[in-house]
Amino acid sequence: MQAKIMNIVGTLLFAINQWVQVILITRLLGLYEVGLFSYFLALTGPLVLFSRFMLSVLVPTQRKLSYDYVIFQEFRRITNYAFIAGSVIVMIFVDLNMYESLCLMVFVLYKCYENKEEFIYTENIAESRIDFMARSKIYKSIITIILFTVTAFFFRSLLLAVLSLLVSQMLIYYFYDRRFSYSEQRAKIGIKRIEFRNIFILGIGLSMVEVLNSLVSNIPRYILEHYHSVETLGVFATILYFMIITNNIVVAINQSVVAGLAKEAQASVKKFYRSFFRLCGIFLVIIIAGEAILLLFGNDILVLVYGEAFMGYQNEMLLLGILLIFTVYTKLFEMALSIFNIYNLQLLLQGTTFIAAVIFSFIIIIPYGLTGAFIVVIINYMILAAGQVGVLVYHWKYKVGS
């Protein structure tokens, strides 16, 4: 229990670290720079998720393979190279000047090392060693906050600010994370073509789910940047960061319980659902408290954190409150579906949501701008949640009720 609490604390600190980055870029560099930073996230997000291949869920829950961690590490190394190559191709086709392209390239290298670290997290999640992951997040957050704050305050440069993220990530990876890697301590045996194929086939469905999920989240960003302005995207991304923080917290809790829930699911489906419903109830209490704070003080918090330029976004904060509810439960439902290895239906759900995101983005965001972007994101999450609930009800009926 102490390790799980530490992991939640570490994730909260990591979320605060990411929030500090957005605040400092907004206040010290400007809305254009924070919009550009958000654009980098949107461009690389789908590639990052595909390169990770959701091994953090696949390795602890998969039952068909019995490969050593070294094999999975080799698989990640290859997909990481593919991530860099894909990012370079993206850079060729996006409209960025030389300085912005250099910023993006440094950002890609930062994400590359983050992928390396994420696999070490995966190994420790599979071994139920949550305490290491918690400490890593805490140490990295402290280092990043210090370096990023000093860099942004003294140099007022987006390039150097992003470079500080890369330096922080490399420091924690080489001087702390690698000491807790199982695969780093074992002999390198290389990955065979059939092993790569087997992992690819097993994980491609879940990986595409995450890629589509990222695209669903980022399509409104692309539309805002293209049809409105980078500054409008900056406002959207800044307010939406409350949702990202919430998502990180849910992911941290999921990481803490996924191995245990997977074992319960193997032993008894009824036992799993009892624990899962209890987890949903706990989140409901947290959501009610959070919604009350958001409705009463949301706009005041927005102005206090980001400045007077964010006065008058009450409607967007109300929409954000609705969005947070769906953020929490879609992530919980996604974990449940993954534990039962229901990947193909998740792919179908995300594919449907992706199509809806494209259609509604053009219909709503182009004429209504910022407010329209929030409405589109809510519609997307509503469609996804409805589909997830339908699949879980079907699973309950035929796995538990039968």
UniProtKB/TrEMBL annotation:
UniProt KW Transmembrane helix keyword: yes
Membrane topology: Multi-pass membrane protein
Pfam families: Polysacc_synt_3
Keywords: Cell membrane, Membrane, Transmembrane, Transmembrane helix
Superkingdom of this protein's organism: Bacteria
GO cellular component entries: plasma membrane
Transmembrane segments: 12-30, 36-59, 80-99, 142-175, 196-215, 235-254, 275-297, 317-340, 347-368, 374-396
Coiled-coil regions listed: none
Compartment(s): Cell membrane
Chief localisation class: membrane
PANTHER family: O-ANTIGEN TRANSPORTER-RELATED, PST FAMILY PREDICTED COLANIC ACID TRANSPORTER
Name of the protein this chain belongs to: Oligosaccharide flippase family protein
Species classification: Bacteria, Bacillati, Bacillota, Bacilli, Bacillales
